[in-house]
Amino acid sequence: MLIPARMSEAEEQRWVSVMLDKLAAQENKRVLGDTELSERAARLSDLYFDGRARPNSVRWVTNQNTRWGSCTPAEGSIRLSHRLQGMPEYVVDYVLVHELAHLLVPGHGPDFWRLLEAYPRTERARGYLEGVVAADRLPHLPAARDE
Description:
Blueprint: H1 9-30, H2 34-49, E1 57-61, E2 69-72, E3 77-81, H3 89-104, H4 110-116, H5 122-137
Parallel strand pairs: 1-3
Antiparallel strand pairs: 2-3
Helix pairs in contact: 2-3, 3-5
């Protein structure tokens, strides 16, 4: 965040606090609970797979830091990384569709990717996620002040 140099330290702290509160409120509006996530998965299954991909459970998890989602077809369970929370809806939908497709085709072979062709934003969502991964690998510099 850039802050004008003319702000006092107290004004800066107040402004940062206000902006962080606004960002948190926006994020809270966009975060789905597990129930809403399950309902969303059912709608996506209906839309893209004629309802054939029906998970027994869909939930957020905090222990997936190297993958966006996972699926256990034998159990019918789908787990999405909490890191997706707050990302654009089409990205979360892509990861859900990806994991739903695993309920129909377990691996990442040609049949699997053919299923994903049904979701029109596959390439865009994959590009977004690749960008997030690339940004995470950049060295993190200290925040600059506008002087």
